[in-house]
Amino acid sequence: MSQSFTANSGSVALIIGASSGIAKAIIAALIKQDTATDIKHLISISQSATAETKLANESTNPITQQHISCDYSADAIATLCQQLQPFKGKITRVFICNGRLHNQYQMTGAATGSASENTVSKTLPFKTIAPEKRLEDVNPEAMQALFESNTITPMLWLQYLVKLVAGKQGCIINVLSARVGSISDNRLGGWYSYRASKAALNMLIKTAAIEYARRAKNVKLIAFHPGTTDTPLSKPFQANVPAEKLFTAEFVASQLLNINNAIKEAGSESSEDDNAEIDRIYYDGQASFIDWQGKLISW
Ligand SMILES: NC(=O)c1ccc[n+]([C@@H]2O[C@H](COP(=O)([O-])OP(=O)(O)OC[C@H]3O[C@@H](n4cnc5c(N)ncnc54)[C@H](OP(=O)(O)O)[C@@H]3O)[C@@H](O)[C@H]2O)c1
Fold first, then answer.
1. How does pLDDT run across 68-82, given as a tens digit for each residue?
2. Which residues have C-beta within 8 Å of that of residue 136, sequence separation ≥ 6?
3. Total number of domains constituting the chain
């Protein structure tokens, strides 16, 4: 990885796992400035070599964009964060969007619309990753794969970002989690690996926040539940979701950006906002688990 980085003036947003449906909508909203933010430079990071959401009118757009590919190994993340040093003190928003639930598209090449366990041809070189319905479905390799992408990768980012985001500018790190990762809210069971990977992610966010409080005290960590959102991740499970409960990625991105703005505003001395729930999030400590409405979820 040999990339050069030049610090522009203005605030910087990092969007990690940038090929995700929700990440792409966040990038598009930031580029179009649908929600007012002070972001002037976007850095998208993904396994993909190129940005899937690109800046239109590059020469006239006040926002600049840079894409970096990363294989999410610890070495690659460490090197990349080292190279991002010119942006130290300027990063005000981070969105860590990595997360997998199944590998149905990799397996079949197209959504089948069904979560059937046996949609995979045995000749394909992939292990089935599908949400488990019962204990017998648990497969150690699939479980490890989900922990790798859903828990360990975001944790490595939290590990290496701490020095980059520290500073007076203040930063909100949004990590895409899921309500099913709430231990206290678990009524339905099933989905062992995804649930556990998100519960472990939440614990890591909460734990990291305690250390961030000492080392990067102007940083707020958010474990964010987007609600069921129309992306490849939810595609096989959308059949029974009522239309009004299946969100577009654009809606979720706009909710998250507005919640971030409200949290930032709640922390400013000039705040006249009287949104009690946002105040609760602001005073909740350095980590909060919230949903797309900006409502706290119990860990
Ligand atoms: N959609 C929903 O209904 C829903 C509901 C609750 C929570 N969420 C959470 O929201 C987040 C975004 O989901 P989405 O619906 O936008 O998903 P998506 O479109 O399916 O995107 C998948 C994401 O996972 C990353 N990824 C894929 N393989 C990976 C690997 N081997 N290692 C690390 N990362 C890998 C991708 O990063 P690259 O860009 O690097 O490929 C991308 O960020 C996820 O954390 C998900 O769990 C979604």
1. 999 999 999 999 999
2. none
3. 1
